[in-house]
Amino acid sequence: MIKDIVVNLAVAPYRTAATDFAISVAETFQAHLVGFSYAYEPVLPGTIFDSVSASIVQAQLTESKKNATAAVSNFEDAARRAAISAEGHMFQETLVGASQKFGLSARRFDLSIVPQAEADRPGPASLMIETALFETGRPVLVVPYIQKAGLKLDKVMVCWDGSRNAARAIADAMPFLKRAKKVDVLIVGGEQGKYDQVPGVDMAHHLARHNLKIDLKRVMSAGVDVPNTILSQAADSSADLIVMGGYGHSRLREFILGGATEGILATMTVPTLMSH
Predict the structure, then answer these.
(1) How would you classify the pairing of strands 4-8 and 140-143?
(2) For 196, which DSSP code?
(3) How many other CB atoms are found less than 10 A from the CB of residue 210?
(4) How large a percentage of the chain has pLDDT more than 70?
(5) Average pLDDT for residues 99-109, to the nearest whole number?
(6) Which domains are seen in the chain, by residue range?
(7) Nearest to 96 by CA among 40, 138, 135
(8) Which string of b and e fits 156-190 if b means at least 16 CB within 10 Å?
(9) What is the average pLDDT across 30-49?
(10) What is the mean pLDDT of the chain?
């Protein structure tokens, strides 16, 4: 059951797809929604800082605060229009400090929602995703920056490989699955026989016992490109949501993503719920 959600608010010039999507998720589950925005402190190497006036640095911080405050105001206005329970907060932080604060806060919510990083606009989104995935112990829903529609659950695609992370993601996604009209269980395998031990049928049976309408799909291909295969299957089936395990680990605050996870996050076209 989803009762509270936290969303990382996009600050100009980044797109607001995740913010709008989070509001639709909160509407669906009648959940309380909290939005966090961050005014990032300028980061300058010491050798450069010596040649930059304090007034320029202060101007950058002032502009960052202005944009972060506007993000909260726009979020609260949109939440009022949607008649949901919501609150917004703005913090002044370094980039690393913001991700740490978001990760610690997200542990106290049923779900965190974050935007996909925009390829042509390097920014804090990637770090927020990785922190939410590795540090919170909670599911994270990543929203493509091209997303226009709100939450739809006509069809949900579950990616199953028999792993702990996939099992965790399926359990975490159960509130979404129970509202779905249809659930596809997708298994992506390599050479014939290599993944015969994966109990795909058993997982389909498990979900069917929860009164879900299940369709089991198994894609076998030598040298398969897992991320592209998942996204291709999602497009072919018109999936509204992907559910999958998030792979990788963090070491001394350096996040290392697994190949399939990194590939999905880079090229995703469908909102994706991940758990680690």
Answers:
(1) unpaired
(2) T
(3) 11
(4) 85
(5) 94
(6) 4-143 (3.40.50.620), 155-275 (3.40.50.620)
(7) 40
(8) bbbbbbeeebbbbbbebbebbbeebeebbbbbbbe
(9) 81
(10) 87
